[in-house]
Amino acid sequence: MTRSSVKTNPVTGRLRALLVAAALTTSLPALAPAATADPLDLTCAGTETVTYSPGLLLTPTPQTIGVNHVLAPCIPATVPGPTSGTTSASVQRTASCLDLAEPGTGQTTITWNTGQSSTFTYNRTVTNIGGNAVTTLTGAITSGLFTGDAAVSVITGPTINPLDCLHPGLTRRTGVVTLTITGT
Question: Which long-range contacts (CB under 8 A, 24 or more apart) does 29-36 make?
């Protein structure tokens, strides 16, 4: 008997096809949905100005430290949204030029041009790359506009020259800032 002379029962053929299809679908792993990036809510560029009074030296001394960020322009993901923002803080602590690169934690309030505000709580790291001090603030918006969103701010400015820390001391530093806020 040749192969071409064997007749297949149509019911048996359909049953065989259904069994093969069932076996394939139960043995294949479920396909996971494609990964997507968190939505970008806002990105800003800007400047940072830090003042030290009476002036940072190589040895620790009591200082009043003022930190101001001007965040402009900001590009919101949805319009209307903030197009600029500012932060301003002043702290008193003992500091020197040698401890500015230490990691730490902090919190700042961003005041947006819309009249709203956001509290940014972060961890700080500082690295020196090619003559620049790069400070990275990584954390989240813990209250106000964008609450619950992740936030990263990167501040880049010149590495401190130790000669600037001789008497009367370093009184001012400037840098450029980027801020990115993404939904979770």
Answer: none
Cis? peptide before 80, omega within 30° of 0: yes
Q: Are 110 and 102 in contact (CB under 8 A)?
A: no
Backbone angles phi, psi at 18, to 5 degrees: -65, -40
The structure tokens listed for 33 are: 């949905």
Render pLDDT for 84-141 as a digit per residue (tens, 0 to 9): 999 999 999 999 999 888 899 999 999 999 999 999 999 999 999 999 999 999 999 9
d(CA 135, CA 155): 5
Q: Side chain identity at 97, as an amino acid letter?
A: C
CA distance 91 to 95: 11
What pTM was estimated for this model as a whole?
A: 0.77
Q: What number of H helices and E strands is found in the chain?
A: 1, 8
pLDDT at 24 over 80: no
